Amino acid sequence: MEIDLKNLTIKKAHEDMVSGKYSAVDLASAYLEEIKKKDGELHTYLEVYGDVLEQANKADEIIKSGKAGLLTGIPISIKDNILIKGRKVSAGSKILENYTATYDATVIEKLKKEGVIFIGRTNMDEFAMGGSTENSAYGPTKNPIDVLRVPGGSSGGAVASVASGEVLVALGSDTGGSIRQPASFCGMVGLKPTYGLVSRYGLMAMGSSFDQIGPIGKTVEDVEIIFNVIKGNDPKDGTSLKNSDLKLESTVKNKMKIGVPYDSLNVGGLDKDVLDSFNESIEKLKKLGHEIVKIELPNLKYSLAVYYVLIPAEVSSNMARFDGVKYGLRLSGENGIDDYFVTRAEGLGGEVKRRIIIGTYVLSSGYYDAYYNKANLVRELIRDDYKKAFEKVDVIVTPTTPSVAFKIGEKANDPLQMYLEDIFTVPVNLAGVPAISVPCGFKMIDGKKLPIGLQFIANHCDEETLFKISKDFLCEFTL
Ligand code: GLN
Question: Which of 422, 424, 428, 430 to mutate to test the pocket of ligand 1 (most atoms within 8 A of CB)?
Answer without folding.
Answer: 422
